[in-house]
Amino acid sequence: xxxxxxQEIEQLGLDLxxxxxxxxxxxxxxxxxxxxxxxxxxxxxxxxxxxxxxxEQRIDEQAxxxxxxxxxxxxxxxxxxxxxxxxxxxxxxxDLARHVADVARGRYPEVAAAQGxxxxxxxxxxxxxxxxxxxxxxxxxxxxxALAASIESDDEVLDRLHEQSFQVVLDEDEDLxxxxxxxxxxxxxxxxxxxxxxxxxxxxxxxxxxxxxxNAVAMVAETSPRNSETS
Length: 231
Prior knowledge:
This is Phosphate-specific transport system accessory protein PhoU. 84% of the residues lie in helices and 0% in strands. It has 231 residues and is mostly helical. The chain has one domain: Up-down Bundle (Methane Monooxygenase Hydroxylase, Chain G, domain 1). The chain is elongated. The N and C termini lie far apart (38 Å). The model has no long low-confidence stretch (mean pLDDT 90).
């Protein structure tokens, strides 16, 4: 019985990595679709979001089943509960990648917000988000605490770029159209939130490995209704 339980726990981990790989692929493709007004890639991201949702459902069903049948305690309980939280976070990251792809598709054959500094800032944000996606996959594979710390500290890059995007909107010299203003605000928000969810993954992995509740308050705040408004 214990061996079966161990195998089921390992499968949870494998499924989380698979889900993260789908998410990372989605943000990579969404970034390219945004940069090159690639309709095909944008639609691939949108269509593939269903696969991420299906993996989340499978993980949640496995975790709930383990809780009901095995009644895990201590470290095992932490693993199962963390898997439930991580699946929800990865699903939101996939949704945000889809939102970026939605904007890229909606502006086709033009490039969204393709004008001056606003375009450069959004591309920098998208590339940084893509980096976060790759890091999250590696983190789930390795549980590397140094990588978790790096993801959290690097989130300042996206926050800073997000602030710059607002300054561009307020800059009269930029001369953005109403649609471009909407695109800058929406894309900036989507990409900034993507980074925030990457931080959430990093904190949960840190908790999983160490059992340290130092970040517990921060993790609760991340899941509050106000912070979940845009996935």
